[in-house]
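S.,

As promised, the coproporphyrinogen III run. Input:
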Amino acid sequence: MHGLKGTCVSEPLMLQALAGTRTSRPPFWLMRQAGRYLPEYRAVRAKRETFLEVCLDPELATEVTLQPVRRFAPDAAIVFSDILVIPVLLGRGVRFVEGTGPVLDAIEGVQQLGPLPARMDASVIAPVYETVARVRAALPDELALIGFAGGPWTVATYMVEGGSSRDYLRTRRWLYADPEGFATLIDVLVEATIAHLDAQIEAGAQVVKLFDSWAGVLAPRAFERWCIAPTRRIVAALHRRHPDVPVIGFPRGAGAGYAEFARGSGVDAVAIDTSVPPEWAARVLQPLVPVQGNLDPAALVAGGEAMAGEVRAITRALSRGAHIFNLGHGVLPATPPDHVGELAELLRSGTV
Ligand code: CP3
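Predicted complex:
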């Protein structure tokens, strides 16, 4: 778009980078940039009994989404919600237990899946879309708004295990012992995820991200079938409906599988976790898609020169292609907010 004096009214830096442009500085935002490390988040959280009540209250969720934006002026905001709103949508009981994490009604096998789609109740998570619209209205034009969902594989692990797990053995055993049955669950999740991301885009999300946080526990052939292939179906459906909305994929822990993922899933960008060498990502992934990542969240807890050194190494390694700066995983609750401020300064100054 052209401005009055013929100057370009520029697109958000985040969207430029996602379109494959090597920007003057990498745009940045942080996974879990809203959350417990911020005292103002803890104050809002204290107003409600449960975390899910905050996610499903548009006024509170909007406030919490904007808190890190006010403090740190990142290049993108991510709507405050959770990947487990999909099981909520599917009528599974989901509770977040203090100190334990999420607890769900575990699914024992395919026989329990029959009634799932029939019980989908969109009105339950409609507040998430209301939050997206409110946040978009409150954000300056130069900030991009990100919507998200969990990858079907990762959401399936929570539904099958009944929460977090050490080895994901119930889920992994199921996918080998009864792949057809497991495919039924993944198919339900693919459809629900498409509907959920589509609704976030309709409400104002300009980018969407798929968090496949437990992709790393899948063996290569299982990774292709249960991470790459479902992602491809979701991306294709979204691209058909919204050709201009980029999709970021995050197959956390995929290792060498990141290359297959970048080639085979159809995503517009890949987010790399802390274990991926940025030099490898520059050589193998960046020629295919823009790369997002990958500061160690622990370096952000440490702060100071040690953190700055890591930031410089990552930005240099990825400077020859499109790069969005982020962490390799979410901000840890122990992170001093001032360190996030230092990081934001460093990245905005363009001196890294
Ligand atoms: O700022 C943002 O990045 C947006 C918000 C966001 C949350 N969860 C808020 C949240 C996002 C993008 C997520 C994604 C999410 N949720 C993932 C994928 C990313 C990852 O971390 O791997 C996963 C696996 C979940 C599931 C989940 N939600 C777990 C395992 C937990 C409990 C563990 C924990 O850290 O407490 C949650 C709860 C959760 N989601 C919190 C927040 C701020 C903490 C809730 C609280 O206030 O007590």
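The chain has one domain: 13-349. The first helix runs from residue 13 to 18.

- D.
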